[in-house]
Design brief:
The protein is α/β, with parallel strands linked by helices. The protein is built from twelve helices and eleven strands. Helices cover 34% and strands 18% of the residues.
Length: 383
Amino acid sequence: MSASTYIHGVAMTPFGRHIGVQAPELAQQAIFGALEDAQADLSDIDAIYCSNVFGGMILGQVIVRDLGLKGIPVYNVENACASGATAVHLARHALMAGQYRRVLVFGIEQLTQLGGGTIPLQLNDDKTALYARSGMVLPAVYAMRGTRFIHEGRGTTADLAAIAVKNRFNGTLNPYAQQRSEVTAEQVLASRMVADPLTLLQCCPSQVDGAAALVLGTSPAAHHGKPVQILASIVQSGMAEEARDDILDAEITARAARLAYEAAGVSPADVGVVELHDAFTIAELLYYEALGLAAEGEGAALLGSGATKLGGRVPVNPSGGLLAKGHPLGATGVAQMVEVVWQLQGRAGGRQSGSPKIGLTQCTGGGIAGVDHAASSVHLLGI
């Protein structure tokens, strides 16, 4: 029988510009925070999983070199924006197989070191490199989705702006968020155009550093009163696209969500809180439908009903999401789980939304020619 997997402790650093702070120091802040939260010592850890995208080779070993951990396995995981979630997925499998009893998973990214601009597309693939040389960037990809969304009458520019208003308000309540300013719909729509119809305040910030960490184990930890179990962990890769494919159909996420619900034995109606990949406002509306929170074509109606606001039936991105909290790639998937654990255990402070029993995290990653994202992950956590 496979062992169950529990989250014993969580922590993250504030997301923002950590000028002059090196990756090991930033990551270690989250690592020691998660260990303290788990009431565990470094000597209790059997293996380490480090998720990162742009930090270079063997970053995990570099980060833990000075922690006195000698000889234990260190795994470095890169899967674009889904790196952190993928690291958790792999760690969970090792725990379920009985290979380890307790592991540490952390994600770290320092995007300020890239010098600004949009996140680079994959350049070791001829097709994607051609797209990049032609000027294709991820904001343009999502802008095309937004344009199609509006053209088909599934929503308006006001609906896109409302996502930014909601999530940026949530960010004002999160001391870990990079951007903590409340905005109005008028301010969102009047901000600088990035790729029509997406304005600046509808795009996640690209200059952000941060780290997040989890301690996972095979036995429930009762020191926070409510042990949090990983009910399902799914990672999927994209299907080959054809010319007739619908750019509004987030097939990879819908597939991952379906498998996660089946594995956990729950339905979308059971989910009480969600952290999803809102790198751009249109993404959140599309993922409402892909995750089964709304029927096809009803994403904007779900938003308009207030169900996804704090205090609503299923609050989405109470942390502020990528739009306000920030998106340090390797740390994002782990940080999403940190927020959901806090929500499930009633530790989210001023942004606590009810008493959810089941939470969902969703993260996609990888702009690559010919497929609907390179990777997508969905996790279900429960108490």
